[in-house]
Write a structure and sequence with these properties.
CATH topology of the largest domain: Aspartate Aminotransferase, domain 2
Low-confidence stretches: none
Radius of gyration: 20 Å
Number of helices: 7
Largest sheet: 4 strands, mixed
CATH architecture of the largest domain: 3-Layer(aba) Sandwich
Number of domains: 2
CATH class of the largest domain: Alpha Beta
Structural class: alpha/beta
Shape: globular
Length: about 240
């Protein structure tokens, strides 16, 4: 295990462990707080894996299926992994997970080599096909990129004078607002306003709105969330006490 977005650390680990079989990484570190790597990180990993004859495996469980503005997040750097895994949005809520592999890797699996009780479930596969068809025909990949840029701009404008906000970042419709202090209480505060959010890494508000989000809903999201964050930040000032 090495620090995220640190090519030198990956190189050192590969050199210290000759014959290491693979590098496994998220193209955006999601549970860790929506950490977006530096430009060239994935292509750098690809080059290191090629040099050390290791596989590059990308976890696209959260970032795949149009979420970041392309079908897969690795496409932003035109990098091709040896293996990619995805799930979650693939079947729009119906449980499914898939493992995609380039031919030389896929050929290592023969029929019966890897089994799963519910693998290839017809209902889950049909739901995935319907979801992929909807994403393609409604141009939801490009829509996610456009709406994500809009949300980033709108949130940054509304929260530019909020001292508690450290950074607002994102790619497509996977966004984060990092605060200066733990903010788990914001989940209930937003829920009171009929807005569902998630807080990860103690102080990062994680937003993964649906790909079918409409413009007026995006504006409503910004209004509610910005108001809740400003209210939370005010309550955190010395002497102001708990949220009313």
């Amino acid at each position: 295990r090495v620090p995220y977005d640190d090519l030198e650390a990956v190189q050192a680990a590969l050199e210290e462990n000759p014959g290491g079989s693979a590098v496994l990484v998220e193209p955006i570190q999601c549970e860790g707080g929506i950490n977006i790597p530096s430009p060239g990180y994935l292509s750098g990993l690809r080059a290191l894996c090629d040099h050390h004859e290791a596989l590059l495996i990308l976890d696209e469980v959260q970032t795949g299926n149009g979420r970041t503005g392309k079908w897969f997040c690795y496409q932003h750097e035109a990098v091709l992994p040896d293996i990619a895994v995805t799930a979650k949005g693939l079947a729009n809520g119906v449980p499914i997970g898939v493992c995609l592999a380039r031919q030389p890797v896929a050929e290592l699996f023969s029929p019966g080599a890897h089994g799963s009780t519910f693998g290839g479930n017809p209902l889950a596969c049909r739901a995935a096909l319907a979801t992929l068809d909807t994403i393609e025909h409604q141009n939801l990949c490009s829509r996610a990129g456009e709406l994500g840029d809009y949300l980033l701009g709108a949130l940054r404008a509304r929260l530019s004078d909020c001292a508690s906000v450290r950074e607002i970042r994102g790619k497509g419709l996977i966004l984060a607002i990092e605060l200066a202090q733990p903010c788990a209480s914001l989940v209930d505060l937003c829920l009171e306003q009929k807005l569902l959010i998630n807080v990860t890494a103690e102080r990062v508000i994680r937003l993964l709105p649906p790909l079918i989000l409409e413009q007026d809903q995006a504006d409503q999201l910004v209004d509610i969330l910005a108001g809740c964050i400003q209210r939370f930040a005010e309550s955190e000032k010395p002497g102001n006490g708990d949220l009313p």
